[in-house]
Amino acid sequence: VQLVESGGGLVQPGGSLRLSCAASGITFSSYAMSWYRQAPGKERELVAVIYSGSVSTHYADPVKGRFTISRDDAKNTVYLQMNSLKIEDTAMYYCNAVLWNTYWGQGTQVTVSS
């Protein structure tokens, strides 16, 4: 099983980034897919989750209205569109897949700085 994140980088406050997570080795469409983040010195926290069939999504309060999670089951990929980025969004962002097991990607760094 592999979850490979991409799309991170350095962006100014107010900017946008789109993260991608490509999955292999799992029946992707059956899995709930999530994005988590971990800032230095802080615990890993849930950012957003999208359930199988895209029937529902959930967002952490700090990102509501700014971030959008989506999935393309044909491409085995989950996305996180991040708009109006703030300095406090700076963190390592991880992709997560959950069904009977839990899998994690290696992370992609997002740095918001002027």
Instruction: Report the order of strands and helices.
Output: EEEEEEEEEEE
Q: From the alpha-carbon coordinates, what is the Rg to the nearest angstrom?
A: 13 Å
Number of helical elements: 0
Residue stretches low in confidence (pLDDT < 50, at least 5 long) are none
Quaternary assembly: single chain
Mean pLDDT: 97
Structural class determined from secondary elements: mainly beta
Overall shape: globular
Fraction of residues in H or I helices: under 10%
**How far do the termini sit from each other?**
37 Å
Largest sheet: 7 strands, mixed
Number of strands: 11
Q: Which percent band covers the strand fraction?
A: over 45%
How would you summarize this macromolecular structure in one to three sentences?
With 114 residues, the chain is mainly β. It has strands at 2-6, 9-11, 17-24, 32-38, 45-50, 57-59, 67-72, 77-82, 91-98, 102-104, 108-112. Strands 2, 4, 5, 6, 9, 10 and 11 form a 7-stranded mixed beta sheet that branches. The chain has a 4-stranded antiparallel beta sheet with strand order 1-3-8-7, with no helix packed on it.
